[in-house]
Amino acid sequence: MTNREFAAKLKDAAAHRTLYIKGCFGAPMTEKNKKRYSGNNSYNKKRAAIINAASADTFGFDCVCLVKGVLWGWRGDATAVYGGAAYASGGVPDVGTEQIIKKCADVSSDFGSIMTGELLHMPGHVGVYVGGGLAVECTPAWKNGVQITAVGNIGKKSGYQTRTWKEHGKLPWVNYTDAEDESTNAENAGEVVYIVEKGDTLSAIAKKYGTTYQALAEYNGIKDANRIYVGQKIRIPWTPTPDAPAPDAPAQESAPRTYTVKRGDSLWKIAKEQLGAGKRYPEIMALNGMKSEKEVILPGQVLKLPER
Fold this sequence. Notes:
By secondary structure, the protein is α+β, with helices and mostly antiparallel strands. It folds into three domains: about 1-175, endopeptidase fold (from Nostoc punctiforme), CATH 3.90.1720.10; about 185-255, LysM domain (Membrane-bound Lytic Murein Transglycosylase D, Chain A), CATH 3.10.350.10; about 255-305, Membrane-bound Lytic Murein Transglycosylase D, Chain A. It is built from ten helices and 14 strands. It has helices at about 5-15, 30-35, 40-45, 50, 65-70, 95-100, 200-210, 215-220, 265-275, 280-285, and strands at about 20, 25-30, 60, 105-110, 120, 125-130, 135-140, 145-150, 160-165, 165-170, 190-195, 235, 255-260, 300-305. The relative contact order is 0.12.
């Protein structure tokens, strides 16, 4: 696949419901897979409560298994054992974080010429550069799954967590032919390009630009209007007039507040300390999709918080 196709598939993974599970390359959390992955290694055993609480449409990954899973054909299929991935297929071997960087070409610590689709590496962890100063990585930090983050070597970005990497390189199974295009919201042949950000929906974008989500979906070849991902470019038809410059993309709201659970925490305690009143704990539950106040929260788990 090309580097841009690779990046698009990774962004699609970030748009799904995911969970960091060591040794998992895209399996949906069916009851059978929960039983398998909650006890297959010591790390996952410690996180068994989180794994067992996952919904059936949650897909498990770790950092290097995300890269391999996508290269092995993962497509977000909740009816397939591994989400559509086929183990060690396409000539891509099962390698770890320290082995996969050694297979890359043009490994460099200079991020001035990085291309979309290149592997990002630091000791014990990998991700992939997806353009625009952003990466897709799977980590138990922050969102505890597949997520889009800012590449600190290039610069911080509002609304994104930032990670600084050691080096980057070209994966041998990806065709790096498409040059990087960092243009955003540029007028191009009678259209405006909008970059999808957190919280966006196609209907909301359409409303901002005076059109319909059906028109945008057709214009952009989007088959499922309910599934767009952060960083995706949405082309919006626009006919310029002498007195009407191309509209700018509207400012986006900042990312929601988060809290990392510590030993001894409870939802009531978190609500009291972070929101000013323990009785507000149901708001935390609702924001994080918790169905019962008896659900276990574990140290290291990241919770979204409502406004104070």
